[in-house]
Amino acid sequence: MNPLARMLPAHFFASFFGPLLALIFFFGSCPAQAQAPQPPEIAARSYLLFDVTANQMLAGRDVDSPVEPASLTKLMTAYIVFDALKSKKLDLKQALPVSERAWKMPGSRMFIDPKMKVPVEDLIKGMIVQSGNDATVALAEGVGGSVERFVQLMNDQAKNLGMKATAYRNPEGLTEPGHTTTARDLGVLATRLMQDFPDYVGYYAIKKYRYPGTPAANENNRNLLLMRDPTVDGLKTGHTEAAGYCLIATAHRDFPGLGSRRLLSIVLGAANENARANESQKLLNWGYTAFEAVKLFEANQAVLTPEVWKGTQSRAKLGRPQAIVVAVPAGTASRLKTQVVRPDPLVAPLGRGQSVGVLTVLAGDQVVSEIPLVALEAVPQAGVLGRAWDAIRLWIK
Question: I need a surface site. Which of 91, 221, 293, 319 has the fewest CB within 10 A?
Answer without folding.
Answer: 91
